[in-house]
Amino acid sequence: MEQKKQDPEQLERLYDEALKLLRNANTEAEAMDAARRFGELGNFRDSLTRITDCYSKASRLKAEAEQLYREQAAEKDRKTAAKKKRKKLILTVAVVLVLALGVGAWFVLTNSLPAAKYQKAVKQLNAGKYAEAAAVFAQLGDYRDSAKNASYAKAMEQLESGDYEAAAAAFAGLKTFRNSPEMLNETHCRRAEAALEKGELGLAAVYFGAAGDYRGSRERADEIWARLLRRTTLSAGGWHTVGVKEDGSVIAVGYNEYRQCDLGEWKDVLWVDAGYVTTMGLQANGAVVAVEQVNFTYADVTGWTDVVDIAAGGYHIAALRRDGTAVADGFNNYSQCDVSGWTEIIDIDAGFGFTVGLRADGTVVAVGDNTNGQREVGDWTDIVAVAAGGAHTVGLKKDGTVVAVGSNLAGQCDVGDWTDIVAISAGAEHTVGLKKDGTVVAVGNNVSGQCNVETWTDIVAISAGYYHTVALQSDGSVTCVGSNDSGQCNAEIWKNVRLP
């Protein structure tokens, strides 16, 4: 008779129960019971293979049980053989040993191990004990970030002692370590405040500017820059003249082949500078606008921000940033654009193939063409303003006198007898000075009458172009002399130029 087949669901249930018993078996008997159950299932799924697994586990559990029994028996014999006195002695020795090891470990951790020293230095640093912290971090060498912490602690010590230059260099080198960017700005602020107390406005403007928006530094920098710089709202270029109106728009007349007079869309302009064939404008937000000469791309001002002064030269342009650094672009055949390393600059001007910068300490730097000695300004001191012409450089001294170097073929450097000067401007071959009483003096090439300024009065700003000179009167009107072959002197009809 054929045996009745079992229900598949029942077989599945029996299989799962056997498998669970195998997995949870902790004794030889449980494993063998699982083998029996798999045997009853016959060829269902992998029951025959599972029987082998059961035998293997049963054998292993049996061996483990026997080993455990032997170990327990040996332990029992050992404990029984041990005497109470020996137990007490061992316990006493163990306690003493643990205490000794604990004391020794504590001593090592707190006095010798790098980790303990590191934590000690961190506490000293946080407590303002910068010299002590720097010394400990230095002893730790390359351990973790000890080298950087040593530099940071030293920088903090320098900051607190007033060694701002060293502190600034250290924080700048640490980049984003700890709060170095913030402390770098704090260093700039303190340096600016110290300069302000000494009456060194140039340095104060530069370092408040370097601090960005930190602690209101931007506003303080702008306030000082406004006192330092004479805003050029009227400027004479090669053969064109540019002016800033009261509403911040810009007007221009003269030669326009390179669109240097197409400025109708310029807005929010504070001041302007006209070069040989280009025009620059400084906007209220510190950005620069410029006319790009058609055949050259020297007027690229992309990315120029935080600018406080602008200068348009022959075939290059330059600008002074709020932090006292400079930027330039354009023709660089004489290296006239190599100003990236300049620092602490408070005035800048661009001539024909060269650039001049005034440092906060009253000295002057220059790059570019030196064919006529126009860069020989290394011995100048006490300078408060600079002007770059065609091939000569002019400096206004603190006492109101003027110095000049470079080409003097037309007498443009004959300024040695000038006094009471408050502003200067250099043209192609002539030099113009504004006197304290509002009158104007000029020397140099006068072939077009550009030096005929002796009758001018009530002048508040001057600008020398290549062959013409313009001036702004206190009522916002303009007066011009010199060449007008391109209409550059037609600015005389202007009546609403913004006062500097």
Write the layout of secondary structure elements.
Elements: H1 8-24, H2 28-40, H3 47-81, H4 84-111, H5 114-126, H6 130-140, H7 146-161, H8 164-174, H9 180-197, H10 201-210, H11 217-228, E1 234-236, E2 240-244, E3 250-254, E4 269-274, E5 279-283, E6 288-290, E7 307-312, E8 316-321, E9 326-330, E10 345-350, E11 354-359, E12 364-368, E13 383-388, E14 392-397, E15 402-406, E16 421-426, E17 430-435, E18 440-444, E19 459-464, E20 468-473, E21 478-482
Antiparallel strand pairs: 1-2, 2-3, 4-5, 5-6, 7-8, 8-9, 10-11, 11-12, 13-14, 14-15, 16-17, 17-18, 19-20, 20-21
CATH hierarchy class name of the largest domain:
Mainly Beta
> Ranges with pLDDT <50 over ≥5 residues?
none
Fourth CATH level, the homologous superfamily of the largest domain: Regulator of chromosome condensation 1/beta-lactamase-inhibitor protein II
Strand arrangement, major sheet: 1-2-3
Summed over residues and divided by their number, the pLDDT gives a mean of 91
Characterization of this structure:
This protein folds into 3 domains: 9-70; 114-219, Alpha Horseshoe (Serine Threonine Protein Phosphatase 5, Tetratricopeptide repeat); 229-493, Regulator of chromosome condensation 1/beta-lactamase-inhibitor protein II (Methylamine Dehydrogenase, Chain H), CATH 2.130.10.30. The radius of gyration is 43 Å and the shape is elongated. The strands form 7 sheets. A 3-stranded antiparallel β-sheet has the order 1-2-3, with no helix packed on it. It has a 3-stranded antiparallel β-sheet with strand order 4-5-6, with no helix packed on it. The N and C termini lie far apart (122 Å). α6 (130-140) packs antiparallel against α7 (146-161). The protein has 500 residues and is α+β, with helices and mostly antiparallel strands. The chain is built from 11 helices and 21 strands. The protein has helices spanning 8-24, 28-40, 47-81, 84-111, 114-126, 130-140, 146-161, 164-174, 180-197, 201-210, 217-228, and strands at residues 234-236, 240-244, 250-254, 269-274, 279-283, 288-290, 307-312, 316-321, 326-330, 345-350, 354-359, 364-368, 383-388, 392-397, 402-406, 421-426, 430-435, 440-444, 459-464, 468-473, 478-482.
